[in-house]
Amino acid sequence: MKVIKIDKKDWTGGLEKSRGAYRLIAPFKEKNKQFAEFKELDKDREPDLTTLNTVISPKSIAFPQSEVMFEYTTDEKSEDRNSLKRPKKNYSPCAVIGIRPYDAAAFLLVQKNFDTSEYRDPYWCDAYEACTFVGLAINDPDRTDFSTSTKSGPFAEIGLDVLLVDMKDHFLAKVISDKGDAYLKAAGWMEKADTDVAIKQIDEMKNKAEAKISSKISFENIEKKAIMELYEADFWEDVAFACINCGTCTYLCPTCWCFDIQDENHGKAGKRFKNWDSCMYPVFTHHSSGHNPRGTKLTRVRQRFMHKLKYFLDKYEDGIMCVGCGRCVRFCPVNIDIRKVCELMNS
């Protein structure tokens, strides 16, 4: 185990130095924007490490809101006519700076869908594998953070290559993987901290941060229950009553992976797109026959929570499909709270 000390006066220079080998993706707030968002940084732009939790999760790094899958042409004069071609995209190494631990953990949950023994989604996998995740520990968790209940936490290391801990005048960078070590070397951050002392400091801060999280959920009883027992429970009507099916919760969630495929054609050229979709939308399950198996608000709301808290739990036997970031709790316009729904299901 190795811990590197990064003096904050060397932070900017290290980032710029690392650009020789890495693209940098980090939270950044445009002057005309209200919130920071993860985006590729232009030269001389620094990450916004003051943002506790971006509104939109960084899942778009590997799963863009809209992505071209194929291009085609039917122009007889083109040598590529009548064939689908994957467009070129930059999959060179990139460093994701300042990602929060629960967002890094979310990538591993999403990976269960996009990278399986039966099928590897090349778009998601190629983008994800290009990333080195340099996480930033959360010293002061938000009131809606319940990550310690979901195999994550403010100092969790799962899914990260480096864990940065803010020590006011410097960072302690705990090296977790070879990819993380390679990035720190590329940035020129090589000053080793006293490992025993640094680990003790990090552990003390971790304990203090976790102690600040008062929001908890339990799902041990959900795992034991039969699917139909929960599916037919009498509380779903009350849960769904206020929902307006806006889809905010699914778009902000770092573990939601629903998408739609659409083709757009203009003249002799066309493209096939993969776009974010939401199980909250009425047309999501609308069949060409006209039948819709989830034609009511209640069935759609039930599907979302059953998928997150029961179906995923049963299928993968690796916890729930949630990392406890609290985005859906904070931004639901009608105050539907996944923690309360989980409590209903668990009890």
Short description:
The chain is 32% helix and 18% strand.
Task: Provide an overview of this structure.
- This protein has 347 residues and is α/β, with parallel strands linked by helices.
- Helix content is 32%, strand content 18%.
- The protein has helices spanning 11-18, 101-114, 122-129, 178-187, 195-211, 220-224, 227-231, 236-240, 248-252, 297-316, 327-331, 338-346, and strands at residues 2-7, 23-28, 37-40, 66-73, 94-99, 131-136, 162-166, 170-175, 259-266, 269-276.
- The strands form two sheets. Strands 1-8-7-6-5-2-3 form a seven-stranded mixed sheet, sandwiched between helices. Strands 4-10-9 form a three-stranded antiparallel sheet, with no helix packed on it.
- The chain is globular, with a radius of gyration of 22 Å.
- The mean pLDDT is 96.
